[in-house]
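Task: complex structure prediction.
Instruction: return structure tokens for all chains below.
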Amino acid sequence: MSRTMEPSASSRDPGQAVLAIRDRWNGMARVGVVLGTGLGDLAAEIDAQVSLPYGSIPGFPSCSALAHAGRLVCGTLAGIPLIALQGRCHLYEGYSLAEVAFPTSVLAALGVRTLIVTNAAGGLHPRMAIGDVMLIDDHIHLQGFGGSWRLDPDSLRLARMPRPHSRLYDAELGERASVIARGADVELRRGVYVGVTGPTYETRAEYRAFRRIGGDAVGMSTIAEVLIARSLGLRVIGLSTITNVARPDAPQVVSAENVAHVAASALPKVRLLVRGLIQEAQNKPA
Ligand code: HPA
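Output:
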């Protein structure tokens, strides 16, 4: 990998990945969903036309994180065509920002116009409770260029990409999520996501610091996908499942197993929102 500071031609070509996927699936989906930690089971509800392991798609990074299957699933959910990324790779697996963003750029190249991003996160806001779902209002990017400590040209390009002056997270979709939640008597939190590289969970001092800079939840993913999606003109909505909460005075042990377990238990709320949102996205494409 070149260490040049100047962006150059991309070494990852979504076109090759698109060709490989098109070889197996010739459908059209306007909606893409990234299923994060513990939420992969939602993929089982998709009426799948094709399910491809990431390893079979050129350029796709492979996933090693717990509860991340690493499959691209094309099909319909509640009758609406969609493409799901069942699991993601993370910066802490050694990938750069651009590598983590690559699957999202492939979804866009396949025709996706709205992206629903889900993740697991630790709650920073004092009113955040385990099992809550938070609508991401905005984020604070503390991930630099990625976990590989390489300033690779693609990541640099992504960081510098011009993007619309409008907000990153779509206000209209957010409003729709609130209405869906209210209609089902589900409390939907709303807040700012702090994206860090991990892989270690935070110290008590770090949780306090992230709260002070304006964070409501903290996690190790999402930023790269949202940046690339917005620079490609997609509408984006983000949902965080709160799997643990920062209580500086009553610290808890956070483990990846527990995070995955709690995230899975919040699946019914995420399912409700995703099903409602894909309907909205289908009716009103970007
Ligand atoms: N910190 C970072 N990432 C996370 C956390 C956390 O507390 N919980 C789930 N993902």
